[in-house]
Amino acid sequence: LERDLLQGYERLAQGQDTAGYCSAKLEAWKGKDFSEEFFVLKSLSLPPEEALVELGRALEIRPAYAEAYFWRGLMNLRLKNVDGALGDLTRAIEINPRFAEAFGNRAFLRDFFKQDPAGAVDDYTKAIEIRPRYAEMYSSRGAALSRKGDPEGALADYARAMEIAPGFPIP
Known about the structure:
The protein is mainly alpha-helical.
């Protein structure tokens, strides 16, 4: 199973079709533990509407699957279902409170779609606490701090992002 998943992720990284590959592996692994991971992998190469179906199948098998909620949140965002995306990212965080990427993406939603820079700063801060060398989160938190009216905090975060990743694009 692990080898098959690894091959699937390699196919995805190389831009190859993973949907067909995963469908074949799902048939081969039918009824076995961890088949939900193939549904998530399959979803990553599908249009958002179809991906939501596959992610729903993964969640039927494992209802407390943080990564499935994370990806479903991103697919909902692509479909402009902001409330659905926010709910899915929140659920991913509830399941895995150390999921830095879920905090970062929820922060983005809170900042740009809900006009809640204070909530975004909280989520960016949590992502940074989890992954202290996450330059993108410092830069994004800096932008939220700027919108919140804290230019000194924003400049400090931009400087930290550039310290971690020289040449990192700053808004």
